[in-house]
Amino acid sequence: MTGTHFTSACALGEDWRSIADVCLQELETGSVPASLGLLYVTEALAPYIADLHEHLRRKTGVQDWIGTVGGGICGTGREIYDDPAASIMLATLPDDSYRLIPSGIDALSDMLARNRDWIREHSAHFGIVHGDPRDNRVPQIIESLAHDLDPGFLVGGLSSASNENYQTQIAGELCENALSGVLLSAGVPVISGLTQGCTPLTGKHTVTRCDRNVLMELDGRPALDVFREDIGEVLSRDFSRVAGYIFAGLPIPGSDTGDYLVRNLIGIDPQEKLVAIGDIVEENDAVMFCRRDGDSAREDMLRMLRDLRRRSGAGIRGGVYYTCMGRGRYQFGENSEELQMIRDELGDFPLTGFYANGEISHNRLYGYTGVLTLFI
């Protein structure tokens, strides 16, 4: 039985070779043989991800890699956005403790069918996954995969390059579309937390009349009247001020932690008193309105980190963090404050991750959230 060990490195540079050299020195590749690698690169490095991936395979001896391209990358106490940069983790895992999740519906189905006995015998219900934001099937694939793992818990995020040609994923080889990643057995223990970054303005409302994504009535009253009351008189005078500040929250049925999906406000019709949001709703669904700002994000981040610290027990071996492009420097500050909060609360440990175009936790695709998973 192989022991469990994690090491990580994060570096920026002028080209992929210099970045690889710095990371390989930090990773101490000769000390503990690794079985799985995680690789995240900024968009500036995306054109060279194939070269970097192959170089890392040769130099480390690790053949199985997962990863993707982010608008920013995460390391221990560090965030890098616009420069060419990479964040790498090497994981030494117990024997026969993982399976790569290939991209594509048919390939995923084949993998699950071939490994049905292994999944059952090894209690393999946790996966790290990356998705293509151009593929509108991804939310359904996430839900279906979590269901097929009976039950499954997934973490990860959608690639977030601004250039749609750079939405590259890695799952053993370079791929695109759908979902890919790795499935881990119970021999790799983890705990996970989610931070919303928003604060509900009031309680939940019941959708009493709607048309797809248009809220017509809430609690039997015109939706805009309810919205005005929730946001207050000052914001109600000028609806242009709510953009990027006020959002719709869709509570997750059965959640014992109060989780909800954050969705954008798409439009307001003052004459008809309608509010359009960025998701489909049905009558009797619950909805609430939320405020998003730096203070809310910090408060909820601290809540998540302190809960994880309590749950981590004997210690933390490593971690992966998937957070929204709208967080980071836009909510916490320009000097890696978001990742420094993790280090300050939980200590120094190997960490990798990226800034995503949608974050994955359990069986859903979120927005404006941070998802931190710790190997313990």
List keywords for this structure.
376 residues, 9 helices, 2 domains, globular, 9-stranded antiparallel sheet
What does this structure look like?
- This protein has 9 helices and 27 strands.
- The chain is of the alpha+beta class and 376 residues long.
- The chain folds into 2 domains: 5-195 and 298-375, no CATH class; 199-291, no CATH class.
- Strands 14, 15, 16, 17, 18, 19, 20, 21 and 22 form a 9-stranded antiparallel sheet that branches. It has a 6-stranded mixed sheet with strand order 1-6-2-3-10-11.
- β23, α9 (337-346) and β24 form a beta-alpha-beta unit.
- α1 packs parallel to α2 (49-60).
- The radius of gyration is 21 Å and the shape is globular.
Helix percent band: 10-25%
Strand composition percent: 35-45%
What separation lies between the terminal Cα atoms?
A: 17 Å
Q: Biggest β-sheet, characterized?
A: 9 strands, antiparallel
Q: Please state the average pLDDT score.
A: 94
Could you give the count of β-strands? 27
Overall morphology: globular
Tally the helices: what do you get? 9
Number of domains: 2
Radius of gyration, taken over Cα atoms and rounded to an integer in Å: 21 Å
Overall structural class, as computed from helix and strand content, comes to alpha+beta
